[in-house]
Amino acid sequence: MSGKTGMSRRQRARLFRGIQYGALVVILVVLAFAADWGKIATSFLDLDVAAELFPNVIVIALKNTIIYTALGFSFGIVFGVVLALMRLSSVGPYRWIATLYIEFFRGLPALLVFLAVGFGIPTAFPGTLIDRMVIITLALGIVASAYMAETIRAGIKAVPKGQVEAARSLGMSPARTMITVVIPQAFRIILPPLTNELIMLVKDSSLVFFIGSTLDQQELAQFGRQALSQYRSMTPFVVAGLCYLIITIPLSILQQRLERKANTTAKGGK
To answer: Are 144 and 197 in contact (CB under 8 A)?
Structure first.
């Protein structure tokens, strides 16, 4: 084939990449000349509007986003451990309940869970008063626990059986072996995927605005939405997005480092 075209496979691949890069440059140049940069700056990068959002976007919206995420993650990881152990149990009904829960809530959009918890419980039980923080914790935690349970279960199964056998030979009960030996090692294994779940939960916290809030209770998405209607500018959403990145980018870097460390450890073990 290379004799007919006069080019080797490597040369053809290099030519194809060059064509792709050239097409990309042309597209970017066309977009750059066609865009109305003045209108973009006014609509998305209005520095006067951005200045008026501070410090509330940090001391209220960003703070509340972190609090809501932390509450949901804490509930999710605790209940996720319970679900993972139920899924691994030798008792059939425990496995069935855990499997049904996990598959059900992993299959539902997080928004439906928020609406069900926020409005479904008061409707089903008239006169029931549930604190807003409890609703947020339950809604985020329910979504998180369904995903974390499978991650934790995989981590538990990844712990070498020799560790369990060694603990049992020392006279540890099955429960103590699981709590003191298996689960700590499982969490070291699953730290990278758990960090990814935390990043997803940060973004899911934006659904809190569907259940309403006062100014002091707003998270980033609702803060940006209200400021949008006030200033008639997309700048509040840009600022809110940058605040999300303040949380998610360090978490992404942490996840990558944990993955590299886990891969290095695994190679060293081999």
So the answer is: yes
List the chain pLDDT tens, one digit each, 270 residues: 445 556 788 888 999 999 999 999 999 999 989 988 888 888 898 999 999 999 999 999 999 999 999 999 999 999 999 999 999 999 999 999 999 999 999 999 999 999 999 888 777 777 677 888 999 999 999 999 999 999 999 999 999 989 888 888 888 998 899 999 999 999 999 999 999 999 999 999 999 988 878 889 899 999 999 998 888 889 999 999 999 999 999 999 999 998 888 777 766 655
Contacts of 186 (CB under 8 A, 6+ apart): 152, 155, 156, 158, 159
Structure token pair of residue 47:
């520095």
Q: Which long-range contacts (CB under 8 A, 24 or more apart) does 99-106 make?
A: 101/146, 102/146, 102/149, 102/150, 104/146, 105/142, 105/143, 105/145, 105/146, 106/146, 106/147, 106/150
Query: How far apart (Å, rounded) are the C-alpha atoms in residues 108 and 20?
Result: 39
Please provide the DSSP assignment of 178-189 as one string.
Answer: IIIIIHHHHHHH
Helix residue ranges per DSSP H, the chain: 2-5, 9-34, 37-44, 47-53, 56, 63-88, 92-107, 110-115, 121-124, 132-158, 161-169, 174-177, 183-204, 220-231, 235-269
Domain 48-269 sits in CATH at: 1.10.3720.10
**Extents of the domains making up the chain:** 48-269
Residue 258 CA, distance from chain mean position: 16
Q: For residue 138, with 0-12 CB atoms within 10 Å meaning exposed, 13-18 middle and 19 or more buried, which class applies?
A: buried
C-alpha closest to that of 65 among 136, 113, 142: 136
Angle between helices 63-88 and 183-204 (to 10 degrees): 140
**pTM of the model as a whole:** 0.86
